[in-house]
Amino acid sequence: MVDAINVIVAGVGGQGNVLASQMIALAAVEAGYHVTVGETFGASQRGGSVMSHVRLFPQDSLGPLIPRGKADVVLGFEPMETLRILSIYGNPNTKVVLNTRPTYPIKVLAGEQVYPELPRIIEGIKEHVKETFVLNATNIALSVGKPVVANLVMVGALCGAKFLPLDRKCFYSAIHSYFDQKLIDINEKAFNLGIEELTKNTTSWAGSTL
User: Fold this and answer.
1) Model confidence at 106, in pLDDT bands (50, 70, 90)?
2) pTM of the model
3) What confidence score (pLDDT) does residue 204 get?
4) Is the pLDDT reported for residue 43 higher than 60?
5) Cβ neighbours of residue 75 under 8 Å, at least 6 residues apart?
6) Integer Cα distance of 84 and 68 in angstroms
7) What per-residue confidence (pLDDT) applies to 201?
8) Which 8-state DSSP code applies to residue 61?
């Protein structure tokens, strides 16, 4: 059996998590890994579940879908969706980088359902996994006037957490190869802000942006 590093990018439609998975895959290729990517969509254009499986192999590659309970890292763009994914793919050794900004389902916005309190969701995540870093990537992206780059903030946070054997040079290469020249600066800035957010908080759960 080929050993793989299994990464799940979990969120809802419109958060840019598919692009985030592509950044991870490109960075991994730059680092010399064989990579497979699998996507699953649930009414993504209407805010439904979107999950990407990114698998890094040192040599030969296997299928693109991660077996249940075998996620090494989860990059969570939405709290409840992250907890749901962890209940299926997580294990006690899984590590998480979590964006704490909720995206409320239509039924919650209509008053038909209640979204759980954020501290309860985070405690639920904590019960499932070994280590978690939290940040409000959405607020960080808003601080530079481009909420759409929250996905690159999250990728930077993942790099800063050092949960993957990929250094920032690999991610810089991915950014430069993927984006048009006019979009490189803002996406690289968002990526660097994500790294800074993680490196200034030296312990899990230390994010001040809940």
Assistant:
1) confident
2) 0.90
3) 44
4) no
5) 7, 8, 9, 10, 17, 20, 24, 96, 97, 154, 155, 158
6) 12
7) 64
8) -
13: which 2 tokens?
């439609």
Nearest one of 167, 161, 162 to 201, comparing CA atoms = 161
Taking the C-alpha atoms of residue 207 and residue 95, their distance in angstroms, rounded to an integer, is 16
Contact criterion met (CB below 8 Å) for 93 and 71:
no
- pLDDT digit string, tens, across residues 124-171: 998 889 899 999 999 999 999 999 999 999 999 999 999 999 999 999
Residue linked to tokens 């995206």: 103
Residues in the chain: 210
Whether the Cβ atoms of residue 98 and residue 133 lie closer than 8 Å to each other: yes
* Number of helical (H) and strand (E) elements in the chain, helices listed first: 8, 6
Residue 39 amino acid letter: E
Q: Is residue 73 a contact partner of residue 80, using CB atoms and an 8 Å limit?
A: no
Q: Given strand 73-76, what is the order of strands in its sheet?
A: 34-41, 49-57, 5-12, 73-76, 95-99, 131-135
How distant is the alpha carbon of residue 94 from its chain centre? 13
The more confident residue out of 6 and 12 is 6
